[in-house]
Amino acid sequence: MKLEGKVALVTGSSQGIGQAIAARLAQEGADIVIDYRSHREGAEETLAKVEATGRSGFIVKADLGVVSEVRQLIESGIQHFGKLDILVNNAGIEKNADFWSVSEADYDAVLNVNLKGVFFVTQTFVQHLIETKRTGKIINISSVHEELPFPHFTSYCASKGGVKMMTRNLAIELGPFGITINSVAPGAIETPINTKLLNDPEKLDALLKNIPLGRLGKPQDVASVVAFLASSDADYVTGTTFFVDGGLLWNYQEQ
């Protein structure tokens, strides 16, 4: 119970990696603010998983691309639990398109959630910590594509590259306040976003050949690293990206 007495906000926690993170942090003793944008049923499922551990959960609907909703998300969590100690910026989207065909609307959708949303959720969380004179932990869920090119997903790669530099920069700026910030960069994980891949044996086999450990990751693989970074075991760790990819990054070849 390394997080007993802590309150964690996990954005995009109605399914996949976010849901696994919320459940794992609850297992470690934290109460959880569950955020969703459109999948209320999934948020209720996450709440059930949190409560099954004996911890409390609180569901808030927010579009992370809208700064006013971002601030309301943080304020709602604080009003309900009295404080926030841990922020996990998990919510993210991607759009597949040739670079020359990307629309402004799709570009804005990706950058607003993946970078702008992360920026302002983090800012509002940090303001809370400074005002209450407390330390805290920020964990960004990035991607191997903060380093690895991903043709036809240029806006996504740009957003994750931005998160990488934001993490490094804020490690310096927030360090004097005792606030740490790190990123976890998943590779190929079995989540709803990869349903098409999971149902295409040829593409799946090609991908697995690029992964030295020979399997896709599971949401729990990511959640375990987040739990470490959220705990006091990681008090001297900041400004770092942890790749959870089975070795994919250093072995990848575009097919």
Question: Topology of this protein?
Answer:
Layout: E1 7-10, H1 16-27, E2 31-36, H2 40-52, E3 57-61, H3 67-81, E4 86-89, H4 104-131, E5 136-141, H5 154-174, E6 179-186, H6 195-198, H7 201-208, H8 219-230, E7 241-244
Parallel strand pairs: 1-2, 1-4, 2-3, 4-5, 5-6, 6-7
Helix pairs in contact: 1-2, 1-8, 3-4, 4-5
**Low-confidence parts:** none
* Tally of helical segments: 8
Percent range of helical residues: 40-55%
Question: How would you spell out the order of helices and strands?
Answer: EHEHEHEHEHEHHHE
Give the C-alpha Rg: 17 Å
Largest sheet: 7 strands, parallel
| CATH class descriptor name | Alpha Beta
Structural class: alpha/beta
CATH level-four homologous superfamily name: NAD(P)-binding Rossmann-like Domain
Give the integer mean of the pLDDT values: 95
Shape: globular
User: What is the CATH topology descriptor?
Assistant: Rossmann fold
